[in-house]
Design brief:
Blueprint lengths: L2 H27 L12 H32 L5 E5 L3 E4 L2 H8 L2 H10 L4 H5 L5 E3 L3 H16 L3 E6 L7 E5 L2 E5 L12 E12 L2 E4 L5 E4 L2 E13 L6 E11 L5 H5 L3 H16 L11 H27 L5 H4 E6 L6 H12 L4 H11 E4 L10 E3 H7 L1 H21 L4 H7 L2 E2 L15 E3 H8 L2 E4 L2 H9 L3 H6 L4 E3 L6 H7 L2 H11 L20 H26 L8 E6 L8 H17 L8 E6 L7 H18 L8 E5 L5 H7 L5 E4 L11 H7 L3 E4 L3 H10 L5 E2 L4 H10 L3 H7 L1 H12 L11 H8 L6 H20 L1 H13 L6 H13 L6
Parallel strand pairs: 1-4, 1-12, 4-11, 12-13, 13-17, 17-18, 19-20, 19-22, 20-21, 22-23, 23-24
Antiparallel strand pairs: 2-3, 5-6, 7-10, 8-9, 10-11, 14-16, 15-16
Helix pairs in contact: 1-2, 2-3, 6-33, 9-11, 11-12, 11-14, 13-14, 21-32, 22-23, 22-29, 22-31
The chain binds ligand 26Q.
The site of ligand 26Q has 20 residues, from helix 6.
Length: 832
């Protein structure tokens, strides 16, 4: 045996020994020793294992930082700083064990304690610091950063409470705080030495030399907590650095001495408020100040950290923009360019031109939505009160930008008004915001200050430059690009679906974990009947696991041989969960009308959270429960149809549901879903897709063949044309007896114990404006659903299609996505 082949084995033994040592120490600290015969509980084992993993990762972290610092000092690398208000990491232990190749070691160690590895893994709370796709994308990106060895930091906030926990009472959503840190967080590494001041309020002082300096009234300190994200095929790691806010002064000592204990600590409470909660994606007006403060806090701490690192490594601000990419995950961190300008001008004494060149080189921005009402704007008066210096800088950026536009497009005053960073508040802004109130347009700031702007799927990027950003695309034609989203195959295939992973390993080898393209080797297997049977067996095992969970959580027995039809995502009108429910109702009515028909049994699974203030979304959840109850209690249905709503959707629940799905519902109105990433996870796990011609569905269909997806519905141009021609949903309903029967049943109160009022608002929306065209797409949706049934009856044909879907999913790895970001967005080359 050569030494080269020995080396990895020795390293693995070392890691195992180190891990076992750390685990023993952790258990010992909790009173569990071989002598005391104490049996460790599952939560205790979980924390001990996590702490032991963290110790091994700590070494990798130090090695990675040291290597990057050397390359940074030699100006050999460009570090990427991914600024995001959301990182939806989910659980970490399973991922760390897989990365460190310690699964088997731990399985044995736990068995010795009478515990099973999966049971222990289940004890870890999800890190749910995100709403949905945008936050999960950031988490997949960190995984790919590590895997690709990209020098990088994710920057976020360490929220005390993440995405709320969803409970269901009487069919209605109730929110509870997500106290994910209650038992401590074994993964985070506190970095007390990393402290940066962050201010709010106050005024701007003008110095004798004309320079300006912000004198904030409120002084906070940001401290860092690091979370280490391991690569799976090297010893590299990536870092998620999350900021925690504290008051700069511990207490107001004078107030304390006067006996005013509340007043003495008031600023501490105010500072702590920044750490409290993650905002939902449709935040209401109240409490918005805190959101703006959170955004400013994230941005300021992250940029100070970046600048300090750059100065430490290179000793000068020269080249800061070349050596550092600063990426904005949507506009939530869009204050970054203003804050960077402030730091460079006011704290470091650079000239405007120097500072602006650095800013433009460093900053890039991804847009995640086309809906104009979702574009972030903030009242100027809030800036005046909280961020007066940033407002001055935004005005100056705007003045220079508009001067430039006026030179290039002389006489086009309307254009200047449309592209200004400031919405002057005159006339309709389409956002329903108060007339007359001036607002800062965060997307405009992000575009003007970036060298690259990208959308997240081909259609979305096209529509972005044709609709919401058309004016900017005319002004900056080279700035806009597409980078289609992807998902990490490590979490979403290897860890979520061990059975399918093993089958793939046996048939095409193990390389797909690193090179997802290798899935194309599955293509010839589509004709292999035995492979088809194996796929079906894997699916059935995963369905059994999900059925057991449904039984446990809801007390509902589902037919494992039924078609599992799944829609899991945030509850939003544009995602059209309601269209899904309308189909379920029509199927129910059809079964009742023809109980002896040869029905393909279905289990329809829906999961997702509604933002607490989103009344319509909450009503859709309630209707789902009402319909589910009526169907389940109707003996005529038998086991041919079930509707189940699984509460408290999140990353971990997705990891159990997705591998068990036969059919993936991706049914947004064409032109509304920027990309979708759930669609990719399902196809990768052997579900077929019923979907509209929207977001990344389109590229998936193109990758594995349109005939291998059940597509339906109006396309974007048709949606626009119909709306222009004057859409009348009521007429559509009148002309379709099946649809009419469904709407009538809801309106009559058939699902609400005769209470016709419960869903009046919902029905009125459908018959009135029907903004998302559910009525227009209903008939074609039913047509596609019937095709699904037909194919499902033919097991072999279904399995062949599944194989073709999997075979075509190679390009949807987040590794490919990040390679494209490096090439088109973050490389020095992209600076032109
Ligand atoms: C904004 C202002 C104030 C408070 C909250 C927000 C906010 C928070 C989260 C606005 C939007 C979000 C989340 C958006 C999101 O998840 N978008 C999804 O991003 C995915 C990744 O690109 C896409 O695949 C999805 O299509 C898109 O919906």
């Amino acid at each position: 045996m050569t030494t080269a082949s020995l080396a990895p084995a020795v390293a693995a033994t070392d890691a195992r020994a180190a891990f076992q040592h750390a685990l023993r120490r952790e258990l010992h600290a909790s009173g569990v020793t071989a002598q005391t015969a104490t049996i460790a509980t599952a939560p205790l084992l979980m924390r001990a294992a996590a702490a032991a993993c963290r110790e091994l990762l700590g070494q990798r972290w130090a090695d990675t930082q040291a290597a990057d610092a050397v390359r940074g000092a030699r100006a050999e690398v460009r570090r990427v700083h991914y600024l995001s208000m959301e990182f939806l990491m989910g659980r970490a232990l399973g991922n760390a064990l897989a990365a460190l190749k310690l699964d088997d070691t731990l399985r044995e160690a736990f068995a010795a304690q009478g515990q099973s590895l999966p049971d222990v893994l289940e004890r870890e709370p999800d890190a749910a610091l995100g709403n949905g796709g945008l936050g999960r994308l950031a988490a997949c990106f960190l995984d790919s950063f590590a895997e690709l060895g990209l020098p990088s930091f994710g920057y976020g906030l360490r929220y005390q409470y993440g995405m709320f926990a969803q409970g269901i009472q009487d069919g209605r959503q109730v929110e509870a705080p997500d106290d994910w840190l209650a038992l401590g967080n074994p993964w985070e590494v506190m970095r007390p030495e990393l402290r940066y001041p962050v201010g709010f309020g106050g005024h701007v002082e003008v110095r004798a030399d004309g320079s300006r300096r912000w004198m904030p009234a409120e002084a906070l300190v940001a401290t860092a907590y690091d979370f280490i994200v391991p690569a799976h095929h090297s010893a590299r790691v990536s870092t998620l650095r999350q900021w925690h806010a504290q008051a700069a002064a511990p207490i107001d000592f004078a107030a304390f001495c006067r006996g005013e204990h509340h007043a003495a600590a008031a600023h501490r409470v105010a500072a702590d408020a920044l750490n409290w909660v993650l905002y939902p994606d449709d935040s209401t007006e109240s409490g918005r100040t805190l959101r703006l403060k959170q955004e400013a806090f994230l941005v300021s701490a992250s940029l100070q950290d970046l600048i300090a690192r750059h100065l430490r490594e290179t000793g000068s601000l020269q080249g800061l923009g070349r050596a550092n990419a600063i990426h904005l995950n949507d506009t939530h961190p869009a204050l970054a360019p203003a804050e960077l300008m402030r730091l460079l001008l006011d704290d470091h004494g650079l000239s405007w031109d120097e500072a602006w060149a650095i800013t433009r080189e460093a900053v890039s921005y991804t847009n995640h939505t086309l809906m104009p009402e979702a574009l972030e704007t903030w009242p100027v008066r809030m800036f005046e009160a909280l961020l007066p210096r940033h407002l001055e800088l935004i005005y100056e950026i705007n003045r220079r930008f508009l001067d430039d536009v006026a030179l290039r497009f002389p006489g086009d005053v309307a254009l200047l008004r449309r592209v200004s960073l400031i919405d002057e508040g005159q006339g309709e802004d389409g956002n329903g915001h108060g007339h007359g109130e001036r607002r800062v347009r965060m997307a405009a700031l992000s575009i003007v200050a970036s060298h690259r702007v990208n959308g997240v799927a081909a259609l979305h990027s096209e529509l972005m430059v044709q609709t919401i950003f058309a004016d900017y695309a005319r002004i900056f034609p080279c700035r806009f690009h597409n980078v289609t989203n992807g998902v990490t195959p490590r979490r979403w295939l290897q860890q979520a679906n061990p059975a399918l992973s093993a089958l793939l390993d046996a048939r095409i080898g193990t390389g797909w974990r690193q090179r997802l393209d290798e899935l194309e080797r599955v293509k010839p297997l589509a004709a292999d009947v035995e492979f088809g049977e194996q796929l079906q067996a894997v699916k059935r095992a995963n369905k059994l696991r999900l059925a057991a969970r449904i039984q446990r959580e809801l007390g509902v027995a589902v037919n494992v041989d039924s078609l599992f039809d799944v829609q899991i995502k945030r509850i939003h009108e544009y995602k059209r969960q309601l269209l899904n429910v309308l189909h379920v109702i029509s199927r129910y009515q059809a079964i009742v009308a023809n109980p002896d028909g040869d029905w393909v049994p279905r289990t329809v699974v829906i999961a997702g959270k509604a933002a607490s203030a989103y009344v319509t979304a909450k009503s859709i959840i309630q209707l789902t429960h009402d319909v589910a109850r009526v169907i389940a209690s109707d003996p005529r249905v038998g086991d041919r149809l079930r509707l189940v709503f699984l509460p408290n959707y999140g990353v971990s629940l997705a990891e159990t549901i997705i591998p068990a799905a036969d059919l993936s519902e991706q049914i947004s109105t064409a032109g509304t879903e920027a990309s979708g990433t759930g669609n990719m996870k399902f196809a990768l796990n052997g579900a077929l897709t019923i979907g509209t011609w929207d977001g990344a569905n389109i590229e998936m269909a193109q990758a594995f063949g349109e005939r291998n997806m059940f597509t339906f519905g109006l396309r974007t141009e048709q949606v626009d044309a119909l709306k222009r021609a004057g859409y009348e949903p009521r007429q559509v309903v009148e002309q379709n007896p099946t649809l009419r029967a469904v709407i009538d049943a809801i309106a009559r109160g058939d699902f609400s114990q005769g209470d016709a009022g419960r869903y009046r608002a919902l029905v009125d929306k459908l018959l009135g404006e029907d903004v998302y065209l559910l009525m227009a797409d209903f008939a074609d949706y039913l047509r596609a659903q019937a095709e699904v049934d037909t194919l499902f009856r033919d097991r072999q044909a279904w399995a062949a299609r599944v194989a073709l879907n999997i075979a075509g999913m190679g390009m949807f790895s987040s590794d490919r996505t990040i390679e494209e970001y490096i090439d088109r967005v973050w490389s020095v080359k992209s600076l032109g």
